[in-house]
Amino acid sequence: MTELDHFPEPRAAHGGLAGEGALNLLGRPDLDPFVVLVREAVQNSWDARTGAGPVTVSVELNSVTDEQRSALRSDVFAKLPPKGVYSDAVEGADVELFRLLGQKDLRVLTITDRGTRGLGGPVRADRPAEDGDITDFADLVFNIGQPSDREMGGGTYGFGKTISYLVSRSRTVLIHTSTGNKGRTQQRLIAQTIGRQYSYRNRNYTGRHWWGVQRNDGSIEPLIGDAARRLAARIGLPGFATSETGTTIAILGPDLGGQSPEQVCNYIAEAIAWNFWPKMVASDGSRPDMVFNVSMDGRTVEVPDPRRTAPLAAFAQALDALRACDDEGASADDFPMQRVSRIRSQRPSADLGWLSMNAVPLASRQPLDCGLDDHEQPRTAAAFEGPAHHVAVMRRAELVVQYRPGPALPDKGLEWAGVFRTSVEADGAFAAAEPPTHDDWRPSLVSERRQRTYVNVALRDIKAAAESAFAPALQQSGAKVEASGVVVADQLGELISLAPGTGASRRRPAMGRHRTSGSPTARVEIGRRWLETSADGQSHLCVEFAVVAQQGTKGSLVSAVVGAAGPDGVSMERDAPLGAPVPIVLGFWKGSRQVGDQAVEVPADDRGKWCLRVLQPADVGTVVDLRVEPAEGAA
To answer: What whole-number distance in Å separates Cα of residue 93 and Cα of residue 77?
Structure first.
């Protein structure tokens, strides 16, 4: 059994940063503490990736067992700061920690990553790294304000790390890591509290405390090797497989803010989806960059699937087009249902990034039970509520910085989503524009004039592009047309598509409802819809669409099922009254040529526009279900 030593940081002769100052460096972000926690932890995990496979991040909220509590009290925190160094009226680390360790309902929130390099480098901050080695351990555990050393990374071990302490009621965390050290794998374990500065026995202390192994010179270092592995197991931290590297940050006694443990886990799962959906979606059918797991006392809490969750599915669809144009050299013309464009600065001349936008039918939301907020309203980790009319902006790391709002559409049955990703050339400028919480781009934070111009131009042009795409519909529809949405749909034209799996949400008078049923290898994107009058006076509903298939497939078969809309305007009437007029599929057209009756085979490399025509009886709402499946003999 190993008992850790306690090291309270003394104030240096030339001053230093007090514990309160360290905690205040994060500022007062607008985001919820758990959202900031998730963002900071995952960003740092991504920056520490090894590249050998997807990064796995697991968040667990577990009850501490009697055996684990005993190990915490006897092995980790056997030595506490002297009592009385804080007044009872002030929240102090020694008072809170002492009380917390005695609670029967003590919980620990762990954030674990695998597929990362762990916290390597020197185990103390006064020793330089050898041969350009990393300094991750010292940066996270000891240093304040150390920037990330990963090019085009997303996080920092500097200011943002303090959120881990702020979430803990005792301001206490335990850090367990496995990392490479001189050709071998080494485990390290240390605990830390950030409290208030105080004086004791004629000596001033900063309020920062560590528990580890104290050296002869008075410094503190982590417990290392098998001793660290055994102690981590006794206190219930996740273990490492042989030669596996990664890091676990355990927050002792997290402040649940009055919510139940289940509601907090739901909230964290929702925060992961909204902030890291780009890491969860792969555009080419390969494995995603990151895998996320959330659990409570061993029970899995589902993280929403961005491809099947509105409005994230629409953002994912926009990112697919952006990646294809920026990374694979595709043309914006290959995405007829979206608007994809490059954002550039003219003076100074620079490529700033790509912007992709698309409009989709509004889909119903599936809220998670995250408890209630201070106003007794349902709590949510979503970045916004209501229809999407936002651009998700991100740097090359594809970690969402924020959702910037644009013009909201007057048609309550439509929403639009956009994605902007910086270029390699300009990524550093946007990194400099981020505050410690990485949740905004502020040009005023950029000291270099050229880079400040890049950020200003990009924000201006993103706004202008959104207004150019969607404001015309807003201006020309007016309040009187809002109920039908026909004018709005015509104005948006090619930008209207349907994100797969989101479903339908409302009835379109006269023009009906449209939805898709997809295959795992292809999807249908809906474009313009309009009514035509034939020579014999009949009304034809025209639905424009395109098929996007995965690379390697040989083609898709698109068919249509049509019917009269039910009373809710969404469902399809199964049994029409005898003799009642019903919609009828007339066929599929490519340009002015009919190429199919009830179905049409679309080659895998065809990104062009197709048209389905339906005979629509007067005063009958129509539901159109476009279905796509692999063509016969397709892979």
So the answer is: 12
3 state SS of 276: helix
Long-range contacts of 92-95 (CB under 8 A, 24+ apart): 92/195, 92/196, 92/198, 93/19, 93/170, 93/171, 93/172, 93/193, 93/194, 93/195, 93/196, 93/207, 93/209, 94/195
For the chain, the distance separating the N- and C-terminal CA atoms, rounded to the nearest angstrom, is: 59
Q: How confident is the model at residue 516 (pLDDT cuts 50, 70, 90)?
A: low
Cβ-Cβ contacts under 8 Å for 182 (sequence gap 6 or more)? none
What is the mean predicted confidence (pLDDT) over 29-36?
85
Structure tokens at 362: 């509004």
Helix, strand, coil tally for the chain in percent (to 5): 25, 30, 45
- Cis amide bond preceding 361, omega within 30: no
Q: What are phi and psi of 325, to 5 degrees?
A: -75, -40
What are the φ/ψ torsions at residue 400 (nearest 5 degrees)? -60, 125
The domain locations on the chain are: 5-255, 308-488, 507-630
CATH (residue range 507-630): 2.60.40
H-helix or E-strand containing 321?
Answer: helix 312-327
Residue 506 near residue 621 (C-beta atoms within 8 A): no
Round to whole Å and give the CA distance between 472 and 475.
5
Confidence band for 629, pLDDT divided at 50, 70 and 90: confident
Instruction: Say if CB 360 and CB 499 are below 8 A apart.
Output: yes
How far apart (Å, rounded) are the C-alpha atoms in residues 460 and 328?
Answer: 27
With CA atoms as reference, report the closest residue to 315 among 365, 266, 356, 256: 356
Distance between CA 567 and CA 189 in Å, rounded?
63
Residue carrying structure tokens 């794998």: 185
Instruction: With CA atoms as reference, report the closest residue to 630 among 595, 603, 598.
Output: 603
Residues β-bridged to residue 146: none
Q: Say what the pTM is.
A: 0.77
The count of other CB atoms within 10 Å of the CB of residue 374 is 8
Kindly give, in sequence order, each residue whose CB lies less than 8 Å from that of residue 217, ignoring residues fewer than 6 positions away. none
Strands 220-221 and 55-63: unpaired
Q: Mean pLDDT across the stretch 47-75?
A: 94
In Å, how far from its chain's centre is CA 53? 19
Strands (E) located in 66-159: 107-114
Tens-digit pLDDT profile for residues 62-117: 999 999 999 999 999 998 877 655 544 334 444 478 788 888 899 999 999 999 99
Question: ∠ CA(25), CA(431), CA(314), 5° rounding?
Answer: 110
What are the Cα distances from residue 404, in Å, to 35, 400, 426, 547?
17, 11, 19, 29
> From CA 208, how far away is CA 197, in angstroms rounded?
8
